[in-house]
Amino acid sequence: MLDCAMQNLKLSHNPLIHYRPIRTSDLEVLQKIHGDLFPIRYESEFFQNVVNGRGIVSWGAVDRNRPNGQNDELIGFVTARTVLAKDSDIEDFLRYDSSRSEQTLIYILTLGVADSYKNLGIASSLIHEVIKYASNIPTCRAVYLHVISYNNPAIYLYKKMYFQCVRRLPAFYFINGQHYDAYLFIYYVNGGRSPCSPLELVKLLVTCAKSGFKTMAAKLWTKEERKPSKWPKSKESGSLLPTKHNRRMSTEGAVSQFV
């Protein structure tokens, strides 16, 4: 796959971006870019699993117009793995059918682009590769990931790509002796969706409210009919005064909250 991007002011040439699977020969560069971009340090086993495809799928971006024999060197990457829906921490955000234990998810582990190649649409293209991969797996219901709370560019990117921010997780990360919150983002595929979307929740609450009002009105009306009348019957209709009552609303389905 080729992507002819606009020239970045940090580059002295017009980049020609190509996307391919990550290979064993990418190990050293992959480790370096991770070290340059992320405050979290990954074990060497993680990188070995990536380049050898052991439980991890990955895509790399290279610049075919890069000079000095570096036209096949990684300048961006995304890594992900398959997770069983029943074993994930987002099961409550899925319309999960327990009878279908084979339902899966794709969890994005890391995504990064070298500084000199940022703002060229490379990160978006890498995410599209993951979404396309997930969409081609019949049992897959969603792509999901976590973003540290202060990473505003990443948060903006995922929202722009229609990922749903469904939860803020306090103290999710522990970096250099300090805790940081994280946001959980989900992109549904293959008909997967939230157990109750915001629109569906509003409809449910309105329906429950109408149903509750009708039931209460019927009970009050029946009660009034049973009382001996102190007044002669009249053809004019009387008005029913509102009564105070306690209404318990279930928030069990209200799992989608945007932050």
UniProtKB/TrEMBL annotation:
It comes from the Eukaryota. It comes from Nicotiana sylvestris (Wood tobacco). The keyword Transferase applies. GO terms for biological process: chromosome segregation. GO terms for cellular component: Golgi membrane. Keywords: Acyltransferase, Chromatin regulator, Chromosome partition, Transferase. It catalyses: L-lysyl-[protein] + acetyl-CoA = N(6)-acetyl-L-lysyl-[protein] + CoA + H(+); N-terminal L-methionyl-[transmembrane protein] + acetyl-CoA = N-terminal N(alpha)-acetyl-L-methionyl-[transmembrane protein] + CoA + H(+). Its EC number is 2.3.1.259, 2.3.1.48. PROSITE patterns: GNAT. Residues 17-206 form the N-acetyltransferase domain. The keyword DNA damage does not apply. This is N-alpha-acetyltransferase 60. Signal peptide: none annotated. One of its GO terms (molecular function) is histone acetyltransferase activity. Residues 224-236 have a biased composition (Basic and acidic residues). Residues 224-259 are annotated as: Disordered. Belongs to the acetyltransferase family. NAA60 subfamily.
